[in-house]
Model the fold of this input.
Amino acid sequence: MSVLQSYANELLSTTATPGAGESSWFAIQTRPRYEKKVASELQKKGIDIFLPVFSVKHQWSDRQQVIHPPLFPRYVFVRVAPTLDTRVSILRTNGVNSFVGVRGIGSAIPDGEIEALQTLLEQRVPFEPYPYLKIGQRVCIRGGCLDGIEGVLTAVNGDQSLIISVNLIQRSIAMRITGYNVAAI
Done:
């Protein structure tokens, strides 16, 4: 066994993973402005990806246009089984730098964090990128189309907002919760 193979086996054995063959969400870091290219290449390889984007009106000197930049620049989420072959295939994709987590091997992201982001995007709830927060009260929305969404309650410009975070990559989004029934967890 080569030194490289033994190192790869050591990395995989130290990763806290679910049961064998079970898929989990992982964040991969990309080169700057390669998120959409990486997502496209990974989809061609048959890998389940999630690249959250948002709409913003951009003003150039001669025109205005709505663009769809990634919500979390330099990150793409993949749902894969944590096997060596899968990791190598992802890492060999043009534009991929590494898995996010301990020693570059990746740490699984809780399904609930990705599902909360997917629900917000599907429901087209207005939101904006927000600085990552570690402190604050955790709350849960009760009722309506966002029932069960959890996050941190804060105030932005006097409006109550819910901050939904992906802890592994330390990125967050904020949405106004005026009119929603919110309960402390």
The first helix runs from residue 3 to 14. The mean pLDDT is 82. Helices lie at 3-14, 35-44, 84-91, 111-123.
